[in-house]
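Onboarding guide, step 5: your first structure request.
Type a short instruction followed by the sequence, for example:

Predict the 3D structure of this protein.
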Amino acid sequence: MADSTPVWVTMATASLALGGVLFTALVTRWNLTSQKRTEKELEGLKAAAGTNLETLKSRLLTQRDERMAKLDREKVFSKFKDPLAHSAYDLQSRIFNIIRKSFLNRYYVNGSAREQEYAIENTVFLLAQFLGWTEIIRQEVQFLALDKDDNNTKKLRQLQYDIYTHLRTDSRFGPGFRLFAGEQRSVGELMIDRVTGSPRCLGFASFLTSRNTAIDRWLDPLRDDVKSMALNVAPFEQRLIAIQHSLIDLLQFLDPDCEWFPSKHRSHI
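The system replies with structure tokens like these:
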């Protein structure tokens, strides 16, 4: 008859079994803990990825909107820069001729009745025309976002503001040939023709034949000033020269290569 199993063997076997159970329990707990930690990490990664994706989408939408706004501004600039440049050239040329070529003395003081009317009306019209195209561009651009890097639009606004300031101030030039800010805007608005849908400025013929009495409240004082210039331009020279210089700067911006207007015909007084 075989001997019974020694007590120490039984105890060792039981200890090993208990150790196995404990080890299995520890491994299972570690796996559960590791799984929860992994799931939490995955949730964090998903949330971060979602946040990054939304940030990227927002950035791309902003960039798209900025590109579209820039294209819109470029369309406005391309559409209206030609007539604005022509109106600036015509006005600066008239100022040059008044001061350097005795235009008013020749055609108003010593001219026929037809020449006298033309000298006054066309001179006033050239200023009103420029204000009209300036107002058209202002209205077309005002609702478009101005990108901080859009140098063209900012430069155009600054050049227009310089002319606007020369025309309205009386601290430097006195009251002659002056239009306040609101008056400039009013004249510009009344010079806009929207009959065809796309805004454009009235031409000289329409300006003469329509004779809008609303606009005459601001233009009649300018007519009187032009008549006074014909007799003595000196009191008006400083303002006229400042305006002419800024118009030349605007032409340089709009036509830097002198493709439309030769440089010899746009000299500073």
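Each response can be followed by summary notes, for example: The mean pLDDT is 83.
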